[in-house]
Design brief:
Helix content is 19%, strand content 29%. The protein has 231 residues and is α/β, with parallel strands linked by helices.
């Protein structure tokens, strides 16, 4: 039997919160696909308590989909900034173009809304995704935004006159601002794979799939998660 080698990574703990969901969120499936375990906050105050409660979160996901962020706990942005400054991996989405403090955290500025798709540019973020990413949610007036990067941030996936994903850095952490709201992927599996790829980011240089299923011989199936690597 041929020997196959792979580098295994232990499962991480991911904290997530969205203020509202209309349809099916890609977040839980993405966390499962990444091989992680998710903890869903029940409110903005619960989110802050969990974020600052001492758990070593491997990733934090926040979706502002129903109301502007200024209506929630005033400590959310400072606490997220501290988390990222300390090396955390942060993924976000926001519908309201006026949430400037949120976008600044992710090193992005809003370029427009409702482009309807993100072009698959072949970067490591699109590993396991076939074709372009479709975006639509008939319930929301704004179901996605596209952005331009600021500072040292990088844009991935052309969308509208900007990018559908902004990869930034706050302190020693890494941030991903996703244009689509988490419940607005026309094909749910595309959103799940994109977020799983972001959760698998490690900051080194070789892109690899976020999840592998390896068959050894004829009788052993080994499921192994590998961390994604940046360019």
């Amino acid at each position: 039997m041929a020997a196959l080698c792979c580098s295994l990574a232990s499962a991480g703990q991911v904290l997530y919160w969205t203020d509202d969901t209309e349809g099916t969120s890609a977040i839980p499936g993405a966390i499962t696909l990444a091989g992680d375990t998710g903890t869903a906050a029940t409110s903005d105050t619960d989110f802050v308590a969990l974020l600052t409660g001492g758990t070593p979160w491997s990733g934090v996901i926040i979706g502002i989909q129903g109301s502007p962020i200024f209506l929630y706990s005033s400590s959310i942005i400072p606490d997220l900034t501290t988390y990222a400054n300390d090396g955390g991996l942060l993924i976000g989405a926001d519908w309201y173009s006026g949430d400037s403090s949120f976008f600044s955290l992710f090193q992005a500025s809003v370029a427009g809304q409702n482009a309807g798709s993100i072009t698959n540019d072949g970067s490591w973020l699109f590993t396991g995704i076939a074709g372009n990413i479709g975006i639509f949610n008939p319930v929301w007036g704004v179901y996605d935004q596209y952005y331009t990067p600021t500072g040292a941030a990088i844009g991935h996936g052309p969308s509208g006159s900007g990018y559908g994903i902004i990869q930034g850095a706050t302190g020693s952490g890494t941030t991903f601002l996703d244009g689509p709201l988490f419940d607005s992927y026309a094909t749910l599996s595309q959103g799940q794979q994109l977020i799983a790829n972001e959760l698998g980011y490690t900051g080194t240089s070789t892109p690899e799939p976020g999840t592998f299923a390896l068959l050894l011989g004829s009788s052993v199936l080994l499921l192994a998660r590998r961390k994604l690597f940046a360019r």
